[in-house]
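Re: How this chain folds, sequence and tokenised backbone to follow
Notation: Tokens come from a learned vocabulary of local backbone shapes, not from coordinates.
Start of record: The labelled sequence and token lines come straight after this line.
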Amino acid sequence: MQLHIEGDAALIADFRDFPGRTTRAMVRALNRALVSGRTVMVRAMAGDVGLRQTAVRTALRQRDATFQRPSAELGASLKRIPLIQFNARGPEPSRGRGRVTYKLGASRGHVPGAFIATMGSGHRGVFTRRTRQRLPIQELFGPSLGRVFAKYRPQVLEAMHASFLKNFDHELRFQQAQGGGDAGTD
């Protein structure tokens, strides 16, 4: 996601002779805006789907700005979240009872014939049988967070833009206070 930058023209004019310092200020401000936007997004998405914030944070991916690429990106994985993370409850092992419930957002749901099991690898999940035979079993998943991400995108862009403007102004003033020659882009 790219941000539209509108800085203080007089302050930016002071830095025309020092492009390295201006780039440094912009990169720092972009990365701080990215962290602010991620925080807003994690809180909104976790509240919407009823997941823990750590699960949402791991599903988000971010790409920080660098001096060579002065743009920051925040995105969500389209990989579906395992149903066990949606506060799935039921007997473990179920012994064929198949009473698994989960909470998605504000409502609870149930999956008939499903069971909670821990695999030999230690992975815990909600499973269902494909046939009446013992095997094969199939793990059940909830929605991906990509669609929820799109829902809160305008709100997060607004927060990121406000954070960028505030931090860019602060970073430019800091670079101005440093004085001296161009610091370079190292």
Residues 82-143 form one domain. The chain has a mean pLDDT of 82. The CA atoms of residues 130 and 137 lie 6 Å apart.
